[in-house]
Amino acid sequence: FCYVIHRLLKDGHSNVVHDCIILSSYFDQLCKYWSGVQQSYGLLTHRYCHLLVAKLKFHVKNPTFTGGLTFDEPNDIRRLFKDNYNLYLPLCNELFDYMEELLNLVQVIFTSLDQSRTNSMTTTGQCRLNPIIVCIQDSSLLYDYIVKVLFKLHEGLSGDALQEHRQRLTDQFRRLKRFYNQTSTLQYFKTLIKVPILPENPPNFNIKEDMKNYQSPVPVVSATSTESLSGMDDLLTGTSTDTKSILKTTVSDDSAASNMMYNRTKEISELEQRVMQ
Question: What are the residue boundaries of the ENTH domain, all occurrences included (predicted)?
Fold first, then answer.
């Protein structure tokens, strides 16, 4: 359920995020409900609901971003607010918060696999790993935005004022690198996605020239995975050929049954009239 909502928020109609914001309190209640089940799918659901709440909060504060974490002009996030550093600071913190919840979910997913000794090629293992591809796509964008926003902030603010931000980036960089390394070793993902490779260390924001050496992490989803996700989209929106065929057959069957019932009722009514005569 949480994965489907996540996919809809990310890849669904542009109105989905706006229409789902009202559900933030609902997912918050689900967080509290599942917080009492700190094992197996209970913990997974708890952390996933936390991520959904964080995502919705992010979009409330940053409506410029689409559900897929992209935005229109300007294409470079460093030009989003021009030189208004008072707007970049809260954006940076909100990106950090979003990334934190995503990494927390990923950590719980891998921990649950280790504890249950579940193989990534089993049905149970793949069920738990399903959100990973979406998390890779989201985290690569979040990390890229955080790095670029921090470079932007270092252009106008002192390095000392941003010490905590650099430390937070370093901590998340290490967790993200571990996440990508873990994913790249699993057989299940080898044919589904090309996981980005992060450098050994995060950028040095005190060196302006380091921005020129920075390369954005870009995951590449394989055609097989794309077809699989496309099939899920058709299922969710009810536009696939099979779904249409099933619906058409169901409607036809219901129509035939209704006509048959109407004819029988008419025959009974005519017989009753004859008897009364």
Answer: 1-66
